[in-house]
Specification:
This protein is of the alpha+beta class. It is 18% helix and 36% strand. The protein folds into 3 domains: 95 residues, Immunoglobulin-like (Sandwich); 94 residues, Immunoglobulins (Immunoglobulin-like, Sandwich), CATH 2.60.40.10; 57 residues, no CATH class. It contains 4 helices and 14 strands. The longest helix is centred in the N-terminal third of the chain and has 29 residues.
């Protein structure tokens, strides 16, 4: 081969190598993307693909997602209150911030409202989200919730503050404003101040049915100090009224024996007749037939001796009897039982 040709080939190869090196350096310095925690590569000192090292811990990839246990909604004057119970099953991981979206649907699955809010949740916490919306509850067929933008933190990084409630009372609202209020005191039992605390309340009726929910928020609670709170509930809610007293079936006030006369003797005979021991027409006279019938009844209820005399022991037993007709409990959706109020507190450092 011609030496000149060989020399030209060598020079050309050298120029190409230099050019490639220049292009490669330009790529490395100016064009190559910097390593990130989202490039699906194990680089920049990561212990796994896009996790560990400068990236979030690899344990986050195995965490159980936030989940909703139930969603309910309550009528509130001209509004609707949406309430949801959510759960973080990860005991050692919380989220110092996350977004949640409520989607509200009407008839035929048509979405009539959607809104997104932000919150936080501690490790292993069951939390309640309460949001009022300007939609009539009659127009709501379903409500769904979804979660996004969850910023996980270990329990050491994001510990749950220690909070105490005291003197919680459920009362009727003052004067003629209507509704119910729940008030009390919240104590910050931590060596650091709390930026805010949200107090959430649920009202239940005698049947343990939730009939309303509401919330209030306090700000800047100093360490080891307390603040009072009050939660207002809708005007259509009221405290339960006292139940009517049950009228006793019988009210015998004196002893009855052979020879006794009066309207109470006739009442006793009616009672014994209903029990199947007296088969005659009722009268106002206590005779041997009444005595024998009473002896049989006393034997039935194990009163000894069965003397056939309506003495204090037998009289008190009969007077204590109540109507046997079962009373179906009424489920009232506007009257609440103050002894069943539930209060939950969430606080942020």
């Amino acid at each position: 081969m011609n030496k000149r040709l060989v020399k030209q080939i060598l020079y050309g190869a050298g120029y190409l190598a230099v050019l490639f090196l220049i292009v490669f350096l330009v790529y490395l310095i100016w064009l190559k993307p910097a390593p990130t925690c989202f490039d699906n590569k194990q680089n920049q000192g990561e212990t796994g693909i896009d996790c560990g090292g400068p990236c979030p811990p690899c344990e986050i990839k195995t965490l159980v997602p936030l989940e909703s246990s139930w969603i309910k909604y309550f009528s509130s004057d001209s509004q609707t209150i949406i309430a949801a119970e959510i759960k973080n099953s990860n005991l050692n991981w919380g989220a110092n911030s996350f977004s949640y979206t409520f989607d509200v649907y009407g008839e035929n699955g048509i979405k009539i409202k959607s809104f997104t809010k932000n919150s936080f949740i501690y490790g292993g916490e069951i939390k309640y989200l309460i949001e009022p919306i300007e939609v009539d509850s009659k127009n709501i067929a379903d409500v769904k919730i979804s979660f996004s933008n969850i910023n996980w933190k270990s329990a050491e990084e994001f510990p749950r503050p220690i909070i105490q409630l005291r003197e919680v009372k459920t009362e009727s609202a003052i004067q003629d404003s209507g509704g119910v209020t729940v008030g009390g005191f919240i104590t910050n039992n931590n060596a650091f101040p709390l930026s805010r605390a949200r107090i959430i309340g649920f009202l239940l009726n005698q049947n343990n049915v939730q009939i309303s929910a509401s919330k209030t928020e306090l700000e800047n609670i100093p360490a080891f100090e307390e603040k009072s709170f009050k939660i207002n509930f809708p005007k259509n809610i009221s405290l339960i009224t006292a139940p009517a007293q049950t009228t006793p079936l019988y009210n015998f006030t004196r002893d009855l024996t052979i020879g006794s006369k009066g309207e109470d003797v006739k009442k006793l005979q009616e009672f014994l007749k209903n029990e199947g021991f007296f088969e005659r027409e009722t009268t106002n006279y206590f005779g041997s037939v009444t005595k024998n019938a009473l002896i049989q009844y006393q034997k039935k209820i194990n009163i000894s001796p069965a003397s056939g005399i309506l003495n204090s022991k037998t009289r008190n037993y009969i007077n204590s009897l109540k109507p046997t007709t079962p009373i179906t409990p009424k489920i009232n959706l506007t009257e609440i039982d103050p002894s069943k109020t539930k209060i939950y507190v969430e606080a942020l450092r």
